[in-house]
Amino acid sequence: MPRILLIDDDAQLGPPLAAYFQRFELALEQALRPSAGLARLRDGGFDAAILDVMLPEMDGFELCRTIRRDGNPEVSQLPLVMLTARGDVMDRVVGLELGADDYLPKPFEPRELVARLQTVLRRQRPRAAMAGTDTPAAASPELMRFECLTIDTARRSVTRQGEAVTLTGTEYELLLLLARDPGRVHSRDDILNRLRGHEADLYTRAVDIVVSRLRRKLEPLDAIKTLRNAGYALALPRLP
């Protein structure tokens, strides 16, 4: 059963939410302070985390940044869903820029939170299944090779100029979508339908943010081309 850590200082939120999550075979635990939450994440064993924005010690944005910069990949690559204050647009944008995989405004419907968690867990599960295996790279069903970039779809791993690139589940899925048909322009709506299944102005802005994050991680490669009013395409030719 996937373990989810809720980091939220509202002690009344965790118990009923945990009971609800059990109906969907998700085990929810709660930490009331960021320091306690970080310590538990670093102990390992969690499959995703939910971060509230309004927290003592440090806000949810700083906590998200700290998690993404953690030296342990089991922590830094953990799927993150942020609970944003009052549904504020800037809260959501900032959370995505810092590396959150998804966001949900408070107050929220528990079923929607479960659905978003299930989505980010599905993106991460193939990578987790491959972690710790000693299967040689040559045994991968598909290695997608480009100039200075390689994607191992079995291990869900990416290397740039021979160095590993750490991507969130959303960033990896976006790269894979573009890489399957290099040069093809994918509209924002197309990307939304493939990765999220939602259509709204705010989600369109979210696509731009995830593309920007992915671009930065692939530097110095000029890997993603923007076509104004059209969308995005992978600018690297695929190698045989």
In words, what does this structure look like?
- With 240 residues, the protein is α/β, with parallel strands linked by helices.
- The protein folds into two domains: 127 residues, Rossmann fold (3-Layer(aba) Sandwich); 98 residues, Winged helix-like DNA-binding domain superfamily/Winged helix DNA-binding domain (Arc Repressor Mutant, subunit A, Orthogonal Bundle), CATH 1.10.10.
- The chain is 41% helix and 20% strand.
- A five-stranded parallel sheet has the order 2-1-3-4-5, with helices on both faces.
- The longest helix has 21 residues.
- The protein is globular.
- The protein starts with a strand and ends in a 6-residue tail after the last strand.
- 32% of the residues are buried.
- About 8% of the residues have low confidence.
Task: Write a brief caption for the model.
This protein has 240 residues and is an alpha/beta fold.
Task: Output the radius of gyration.
Answer: 18 Å
CATH superfamily of the largest domain: Response regulator
Structural class of the secondary structure composition? alpha/beta
The largest beta-sheet arranges its strands as: 2-1-3-4-5
CATH topology of the largest domain: Rossmann fold
List keywords for this structure.
2 domains; 9 helices; Arc Repressor Mutant, subunit A; four-stranded antiparallel sheet; single chain; Rossmann fold; alpha/beta; five-stranded parallel sheet; 240 residues
